[in-house]
Amino acid sequence: MNLKGKKIGIALTGSFCTFDKIFKEMEKLVETGAEVYTIFSNASQQISSRFGKPEEFMERAEAITGRKPICTIEGAEPIGPQSYLDIYVVFPCSGNTIAKLANGITDTPVLMGAKAHLRNNKPLVISVSTNDAMGMNMKNIGLLLNAKNIYFVPFGQDDPIKKTNSLIAHTDRLIPTLEFALEGEQIQPILQPFTR
Length: 196
Ligand SMILES: Cc1cc2nc3c(=O)[nH]c(=O)nc-3n(C[C@H](O)[C@H](O)[C@H](O)COP(=O)(O)O)c2cc1C
Prior knowledge:
Elements: E1 7-12, H1 19-31, E2 35-40, H2 42-46, H3 54-65, H4 73-76, E3 87-93, H5 95-102, H6 109-118, E4 124-130, H7 138-145, E5 150-152, E6 155-156, E7 167-169, H8 174-182
Parallel strand pairs: 1-2, 1-3, 3-4, 4-5
Antiparallel strand pairs: 4-7, 6-7
Helix pairs in contact: 1-3, 5-7
Bound molecules: flavin mononucleotide.
């Protein structure tokens, strides 16, 4: 499915090391003619780290999309009643947000947006990026893999020797993942190794 004209929510959570890759994919989506809306979790609005300052990330998102990021729960809530997004992708999705989403917790703009969007029976995509994916969070990933209207960007172990529980998504597979999800299908294979 062509993404031209599709309204896509990109929800950024606190996996800061992936943000550079996220913005590259965001640019590609805008180039394809998609209308992109960004939603920032509280952590992604507040935490400064060696990967950058949150205000710079939010400015970058606005520069790419031409829209101010959604930064509050009340700002994300209309995604439900107005049903204005075709698809919502948590990109990147932290372990924290995976755990909350799988357990029905809605205490950040990203989670509010996800809940609001899911109520409309529309596709939600997860782009996992967490060191505890195959540890404490495996059960939550399992719940989401089995949940209606939830799809995953293919993922793999990024460093099986030093970070044995870590999984990250192949962010460069975002566009085909969205195309499949909009047709109600999970792109396969979902498990894809990283070649070094
Ligand atoms: C520099 C830095 C990098 C981080 N990277 C990750 C990450 O890649 N994956 C992850 O799950 N959490 C990561 N975290 C922790 C999350 O930011 C933290 O759990 C936060 O509460 C997530 O909130 P959110 O899911 O609402 O965005 C990182 C934190 C810092 C300070």
